[in-house]
Amino acid sequence: MESTVSVRTGLKTGRFDPTLMVWVTAAVVLAILIVAPMFYLVYESVAVRQGLGLFETKASFGLGNYVKAYTDPLYRGPILWTVIIAVSVGFFSMLVGSLMAWAVARTDVPYPGLIRTASLVSFVTPPFLGATAWVLLAGPREGWLNIWYRWLTGAGEEDYLFNIFSMPGVIFAMVLYVIPLVFIVVLSGLNNISSDLEDASNIAGAGTLQTMFGITLPLVMPALFAGLILAVLEAMILFGTPAMLAIPARQHVMTTQIRAFMQSEDYLVGLASAFALPMLLAAIVLLWLRRRALGRRSYATIGGKGGQRRPQKLGPYRWVLFAGCVAPLVCALGLPYFALGVNSLMRTQGGGIGWENLTLGNYRFIYENDAVAQSIWNTIVLAIMAATAGTVMAALISYIYQRRLVRGYQVMGFLTTVPLAIPGIVLAVGLFAAYTKQPFVLYGTLWILFLAYLTRYLPVAFQTTNASLMSIHPELEESARILGANRLRVFGEITVPLFKAGLIAAWVLIFMPSIRELSASVLLWTTRTKVISVVIVDFYEEGLLQNVSALGVLLIAITLVFVVGAYRVVGRDFMRT
Amino acid sequence: MRYFVRLAALIAAALLVGGLPAQADQTMEMAKKEGKVVWYSSISLAIAQELCNTFNAKKLGIECVLHRDGSGKLYRRWIQEAKSNIYAADILHTSDIGHFVTLRREGALVPYLPEVAKKYNPAFVEKDGNWLVLRASVYAACYNTKKVTASEAPTSWKDFLDPKWKGKMVNAHPGYSGFVSLGLAALVKEFGWDYLDKLAANQPRIVQSAVDTTTYVVRGEALICSGGGLYNHFGAIKKGEPIKAIIPKEGAPFVASAQAIMKNGPHPNAARVFTDWLFSLEAQQILAKRGLYSGHPDVVYPKGLVPLKEVKLMVVDPEDAMKMDKPIDEAFRRKFGV
Fold this sequence. Notes:
By secondary structure, chain A is mainly α. Chain A has helices spanning 2-12, 18-46, 64-71, 76-106, 112-124, 127-138, 144-153, 167-191, 196-203, 208-237, 240-245, 254-262, 269-294, 317-343, 361-368, 370-402, 409-417, 424-435, 446-470, 475-482, 487-498, 500-515, 521-524, 532-541, 545-570, and strands at 47-52, 56-61. Chain A has two domains: 1-62 and 365-577, MetI-like (MetI-like fold), CATH 1.10.3720; 63-343, Orthogonal Bundle (MetI-like fold).
């Protein structure tokens, strides 16, 4: 209601009505970021192309791509694996992640700060580096853990404890890096519930477990469900882990199959699109379910935290719980960082760990490689560009949304969150289909990667700025308006300084995933526009594990510098959304 | 008119006296203006980088910009980029000679014969200069010497079909690796398509690059590789890794890795200068030192490398390689699942 009123008064007093301009700009941006890629995704999926020579194709329209993608037995495996992996990863991550969240939020588990910080660090660790490390740790024959296992137990040469090149291996390596996602969601859910009811339950004589299952669990159910869904979604759209672990086991998942289509002899963009669209639909359905579960709470992350929260006393069991919380973090951080660090210093791959096998040559190798230098530059430039543009857009949109500046502000808010439902590789297929065509050829430039990163991470930035803006009461702005400042000046001089922390958080939340983005980049890079993650995959495919490790150490170092910096500036709250 | 005659005479004299060097100078001049040469190369990164670094160390004012990837991926990337009107590559170098037959048919190659090519073994030079073979090797198998004894190691290509190796070997992907594409084409020609089915039944780990089959075996993650690049095995042996190459008794598929100047490349003169250098004795000697065979008659091969003429070669001629390229890739995807 308020919006109609303010817009009307604007018209009446004859001042400039921003509605039209805002909407035209929004429409153009929207068309570039979402409509064009999604249109061409659908278009290519129904365009059946026949090659005429190397460079020409002839398209006729029909459902041929879908028929081929979903009837050929060759492609059943990838679909099946994707479904099983996504559901399993969702289930296990939710189990472990919510246990950790409960431990930190509701019990006297030792060192909750450590668990929280370590979860944050594993959250920003690129999963594809984790996968590489786990190849070193749990390759069935020469994984260090398996060697130690044989040495300890005297088991035979062909025996092993773990085989990372298997479906359980893929699930395991994914779960490690999806857990923190659930942890964050459930933790914030728990933090929003007061312990009054739990206390009542305890006073009435219920034990810790009974309280947990009877009271806490039902209260936190929506958050659990939301965490589960985000975990399933994340597992479905990951590219790096299956590319590194499933392909050696002769199995594609949908994301790796899409890339295989795109890079096959006939550039099967149509088949890739036919594979990508159902992933898009699945993501939409999942997010819709999540929204339903959370109700309107999904945006109200900075709601009032009523009441008090008192930790449950667990006695000696708190150390058991501590071990349970730390084990996944050791697997996600301790072991992989150790493996990458050591491997990056190894001269020969077969020489094992020892002084005579020590070298800095792998670092020199990446230092001398101009693809690496170029990719580091590209990565940082892209991440800064995407983060800056994304923050500005997120700030403006959430301002318009919160202050209801234009008609249809709800629609604008909704559209900004739409890309959440577009998996990275699906977006990449769409961008590729849209921007390799004349006259808008962005393929071959950094711009196409910029669009991908911006689109992928704008929603998260928007949610952050939105939540932050919600806490700033409009009366401060109104006073400035009354004193004669225009909207723009108010925004610049009153609003922005007040929500600086929110802006920085949004910037970091785009920057961090951008410097390690893989699933879209892997389809959109060209020789001059490689990014670090793509070079790591290149190295991995050539078997240059020590160089992957060295570059991985570098990438982790860059990431941690930024995380620590962000932590210093905004505090840990920037991980909330 | 008199002026014109004089000009013509001058030109004729120039051509007679120092025509070719003058032309070379001019190429060099323009190459320097172009400033760099972009090389799409499938040779293993360590070697490609050594070549580029050596060239750059000459400070000719031309920088070698390397893009290293698998043969199949490079070839398809070049076509993909050409379709979008992007011409980033000056020179394309892959191990699948079939690519060059196709590209020649499509008019995508710029013929160029460096002076030094006259010295070369004619098998390394396409007659019109459409491509030149930069380096050659053979598709050879390998085993880990810590885990497999010499007497256990396979001696025939058919040994890799023996179920006793099930789950213990590694094979690279023909869609990525030109070595594998050509190697499997030769093996299929020799033993029939059946060979792939039986190989798949032995459930090898599938890696992308032929280089990675070597590293899987040196790490011990696979006991044997059912094919790879002899030069990669050779490099690993030199480094002290626990690996030996196998040249089976039926012979080894010959892999001649060609390169060509690509049409519409952004630095056509630099491409010529770089090509001249790549085929010079200096560059070819770098390749030979790494266990690759050269068409240059004066290179000296390192100790421990089997002379090419002592290897029984299985040769797939370029036309056949071109015809087999896609069917091998498709059959592989179907039979091996990825």
